[in-house]
Amino acid sequence: xxxxxxxxxxSKLELIIPHATIVERVLPxxxxxxxxxxxxxxxxxRLAADSVRCNVSNDWYxxxxxxxxxxxxxxxxxxxxxxxxxxxxNVADYYSVAWGKMNCxx
Length: 106
Known about the structure:
The chain is of the alpha+beta class. It has two helices and three strands. A three-stranded antiparallel sheet has the order 1-3-2.
């Protein structure tokens, strides 16, 4: 009889960036909130296309704060370390191209 090891075999690293919540009271705020949703979706799809195991989210945390989160997973710290190195390139690309073009009046 053999027993399987039940220890988790994955490592996880989260980068949490707190920022002010966008309250949707007027049209520019609604647009900005939708831009953030689009940015999160674009980053998620880009990272998946590059085979980077990373979840991207932007969720309300407390009162007037949201948390923009990158959550990297891998079988070892080496695998998420290599993913971590790809992350800035993807984020910089999308921030400058997608967000910069959409952010017209800020």
